[in-house]
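Input for the complex:
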Amino acid sequence: MSIGIVGYGSYVPRHRIKLEEIAKVWGADAPAYKRGLGLREKSVPAPDQDTITMSVEAARRAIVRAGIDPVRIGAIYVGSESHPYAVKPSGTVVAEAIGATPEIHCADLEFACKAGSEGMYIAMALVKAGEMDYALGIGADTSQGAPGDALEYSASAGAAAFIFGRERLVAECEHTYAYMTDTPDFWRREYQFYPRHAGRFTGEPAYFKHVLACARGLMERSGTTPSDFRWCVFHQPNGKFPQRAASELGFTKDQHDQGLLSPTLGNTYSGSSPMGLSAVLDVAASGDRILMVSYGSGSGSDGFIWRVTDRITEVQHLAVQTREQLEGRRVYIDYGTYSKFRGKIRMGAE
Amino acid sequence: MRDVAVIGVGMNRWGELWEKSHRRIWTEAALEAIADAGVDHVDALYVGCMSGGLFMGQEHLGALLADQLGMGPIPGTRVESACASGGLAFRQAYLAVASGEHDIVLASGLEKMTDVDGGAATYALSTAADQEYECYHGITFPGLYAMMARVHMHRYGTTREQLARVAVKNHANGLLNPLAQFQSRITVEDVVRSVLVADPLRVLDCSPITDGAAAVILAALPQKGSKREPVKVAASAAATDTIALHDREDIAWLRSTDVAAAKAYAQAGITPEDLSFCEVHDCFTIAEVMVIEALGLTGRGKGGEAAASGMTALGGRVPVNPSGGLKSKGHPVGATGIAQVREAVLQLRGESEGRQVEGARWGLTQNMGGTGASSVVHIFTRA
Amino acid sequence: MIGSALYWREIPQRYRYEAASCDACGKIHFPPRLVCSSCRGTRFSRTTLAPEGAVETFTIIRVPPTGFTAETPYAVGIVRLDDGVKVTAQIVDADLDELRIGQRVRVEFRRVQKEGEAGLLCYGYKFVPVEV
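Predicted:
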């Protein structure tokens, strides 16, 4: 029985800040940062945007592509590390807004940047188990980077939503794989505003260990090699890590480029590889195979192999595409406005 | 229904009255009206107050103020219609006398707005609009009127300068009114360079936050041997329109004023051309422009030229807001409608100290709530 | 300041733009109500507002009410939707200097208010310019 994606959608906020703007304030060498991180600019959520608002818009686009009555969605999982409430799920607001209530399972997920892909996995597994006809998994974040910290150059905002089902698939899921350990590379304690990270430890023992192991495990289980894939998507905390992962695994630039959004989007955390996948689906052709590996600090990776179907060309233009939003009308802001938008200014009590 | 006249008026100097409580402010004005009328009692009192609860934490004003006057157990009624509370209180008092229910009635207005901070005052005022479908979205009163102004400017070519002329005129009149909050001349330049509040409206397009009260005494005609020349209420009318600006048929037309005024002109047996002067609700400069159109003083869409051309200045064809209007007299919300009546009465008595409209015969007051969801129009003449 | 019940009752309108059309004369009411403002009819059918429209008028709020300081300055407008209904809402993601009467806009889900640091997050509709 085939299980897979019936509809997908993404949301990219309109505002951007260039890395030079951030570097200027902290007296940092902008060109060096840009080269080192492989980033040029990132998206910034407006003060009225959060994980919930972006999830709603991404989900609405997924519903349009799926062509289903949202009331048939049997579960919703929003994965994020910036849920607007600590207690009260993002999923309930999203479900109400898309008209999927009241007969629907819901709980929010957290696993740093891989909460979104985990949400996708769980949603899909419920459909596979025959529990429901459709389920919705969303990855969305408006994560914060501490002022002056390296993460401030990359932490951005975005969302991608996927509706899973058994019929009218646009991409079938051929294999999944998970690789997870307890690895303290990046965390945020409760009540802290900004996360902390372990510097260079976030590389080899964290991101690369899990992404590479997951990708290799996935390919071993499915008996595939990089040449069996038309596209690959990796978690994108910056522009460099995913490119290195791709090349170490033996993927080409041509396979990797379409799904690599971070150079102009930044790191959308739980939205990262899901949004990369949505950008690939926007241009994929029937029969294309896609390898997708997420990464969440703490740490773990979810791997998926998708095979695109005939139906993909019917839906690609039904809603705005990911690169269309990324490259379309953008509003650039300065660091002061950025600070205001991101709540980094200590406001008076109201 | 009997004929009714205003036989006494009272008001205090309006402004930021830090040292006076609302009881003191109101009672001063009430006592002055009672003394002016030369009566020794009133049968009932009406008080217009938009929000004693939100501004002062005090409701039950009808009873409280009857108590303050030492005239219990007379009935006291607090009337609310947002910024038209005073005008509507006057109308209720008028109906009480006209119907024969009472013979001498105090109609008053009160608002004490400076005991709460700016944010709380703005919130209290915002309750005149649609809370869930206008205010929820972050619109303010200057914002609502700014949206009306933009339509008026776009459709009729009303200019930024024309709006400024309304404020300039009203401040010039206020200079001649010793009780006005602002006694300062301003220029068009001052207005157009003042701080933007909600584009295109600026601080000097907006009426202020004010503490104040006003009171008048109504009695049935004929009045034998009254202390003052009675001024007859020739017409009293009220009307409503949609609470939300977006539900209006025409965002740039004050239908409630049009409807109330038409009823009033018919009751009084006059037309707009007969008016000697008006006191209208210039909560914002654009409001005066739109009100005079709805009153039929100018054609629809033509209100912008009126202040600029001098038509509505003191000495013009039909002076509008000889008292200084809300803009310079101040706008203690519930008291405004009553102060308008007081001005009409003084003008018709010939007692308007320096801002007298020569040969005044017919005067109209127009008091309005919110963005025009309610309007109350009265016409006065010499008895 | 914002009661839970008060906020929750408006969810169908704020999240899903649910309106009511009068069975007798067809006028669409948003929010739904008991009596048609056009014909005084009392029977309605559920409908949903059109997602796009044009700016009828707007202003830019520079002196905000309590709770809106973080987004100041911001534009609020009256949008005439393609089904004829007019709504008041913020217009966002737009260049404030380029806003025009007649500009095409479409609805987007946004956070409209938040009650300080510990109160409710209140969502609803805003409008963004339609790309040309």
